[in-house]
Amino acid sequence: MKKLEDYVITIPDFPEPGIMFRDVTSVLQDADGFRLAVDTMQGLVTDADFDVVVGAESRGFLFGAPIAYNLHKPFILIRKKGKLPRETVSAAYELEYGKAEIEMHRDAIQPGQRVLIVDDLIATGGTIEAMIRMIEEVGGEVAGILVLMELAGLKGREKLAKYRLDAAITYEGK
Predict the structure, then answer these.
(1) Which of 17, 23, 118, 161 is 20 to 30 A from residue 135's alpha carbon, by CA?
(2) What is the average pLDDT across 158-166?
(3) Neighbours of 89 (CB within 10 A)
(4) E strand or H helix at 30, and its extent?
């Protein structure tokens, strides 16, 4: 039986020399790999107490939605700025090559709700930090962070040390 890591294709020197790019699409394009990823991630949070699942556009949707569905929890979308039709809260953050802004509906999370953040990857932690700011702004409480892959060398976990963070796969490099 294949391990989850066996489904991840690593592309050296992409998008620039020295970077080892971990391709999540190789996991998704294999039915067994996708199932193993969702099941493994979900298994990491069986003891977590949360009310809703939040996923960031777009790969957070791919893993967060099936986990929310399996656990009969609501799923909240966090999207790129300008994509949601109702009143929103937003947060800007730094990317490796620039800046970005994300938003969610202001009424998506109720005060006191415990939130599980799901995404495909944690690197520097910037996207997840922005998600946390929005969740806390509307009165939600972050119950945990769940990712498929952690790039430990980029130290995102250290930035988010006060939160529970579970990763299905951890890569020590960048």
Answers:
(1) 23
(2) 96
(3) 18
(4) none
CATH code reported for the domain at 48-171: 3.40.50.2020
Vertex 55: Cα angle to 116 and 107 (nearest 5): 80
Catalytic residue, candidates 35, 94, 96, 158? 96
Tell me, letter by letter, the H, E, C secondary structure of 72-100. Answer: CCCEEEEEECCCCCCCEEEEEEEECCEEE
- pLDDT tens figures, 28-62: 999 999 999 999 999 999 999 999 999 999 999 99
Residues 29 and 170: beta-carbon distance below 8 Å? no
Residue 167's φ and ψ, nearest 5 degrees, are -125, 135
Burial class (CB in 10 A: 0-12, 13-18, 19+), 53: buried
Query: Which residue, 82, 66, 75, is CA-closest to 117?
Result: 75
Separation of alpha carbons 121 and 58, rounded Å: 11
Annotation marks residue 86 as catalytic: no
96 catalytic residue (yes or no):
yes
Where exactly are the structural domains of the chain? Answer: 48-171
Paired tokens of 142: 């972050």
Q: d(Cα 148, Cα 52) in Å, to the nearest integer?
A: 18
